[in-house]
Structure of AraC family transcriptional regulator:
Amino acid sequence: MLTERLYQPFDIRLMDVVDWHQPPHQHAFFELLYIQDGVGRQCINQNKFAYRKGNLFLVTPTDCHSLDVDAPTQFVSIRFTEQFFQTVAGERPDWFRKLEYVLAQHAHQPDCLLHNDSDRLFAGQLINGLVREYVNKGPFYETILQNGLQLLLNIVARNVAEKGHIGLPGNIASSSMLKDMTLYIQQHIHEPDKLRADHLADRFNLSPTYIGEYFRKHTGESLQSYIIRYKLKLVENRLEFSDLTVSQIADELGFTDESHLSKLFRKYYSISPKMYRQRATAFPA
């Protein structure tokens, strides 16, 4: 399969398409695809989603991507690599933690990222501003682009959070407390003290001795198991999309050490983190 590559940390392209002739392909970068006009279908990993004006899609380096165009389509392609943020800011944590939250949801709902009408308008204005900034390249434009893209990721993360929460078994559609609890866990996954049962019990007005039973009763799994699975999903994303070592990932996500992370990862995935990374990042020639 064709793999398209990006030879600079950041790029924005304006494209007008009547017929899409490019075959399904993968990227060696992240892409936010914003539809300015037109209708058709976006195909991600053989799943097709109707698109229209105002839709925003995320295409990751592991996705197989193509378009079916029904009417002349104009879109903005915002392409970036991890190095873009390192080049500008010298470090990754804040932006990557926001992106990894979106990535953790992405496999479960790879359709349009914007579901709030006011946010759809806001994002469109922001993207148009990013395009102007990139074309004009005025003073401090790289910093402005970085901050603008971070803002866009925050808007996306909010829409993802409003739509639903990942990895929670059982029928909890009527339980706003469970939805709020899982969202709280996801947002504070890097803060071990806020994931303790006594803290969560206090936060959600439950007894420390009852919160575990409550969670299991409504989800079918323990609170600790849910936290571990969500952490491992973030490990998965970091192995695929960052250059952090396994030891660094273990430290940032609160595992005791690299050995502890590797043991849990192998238990849930039947493969070591290093082997997972090798397979996930092995792009076809």
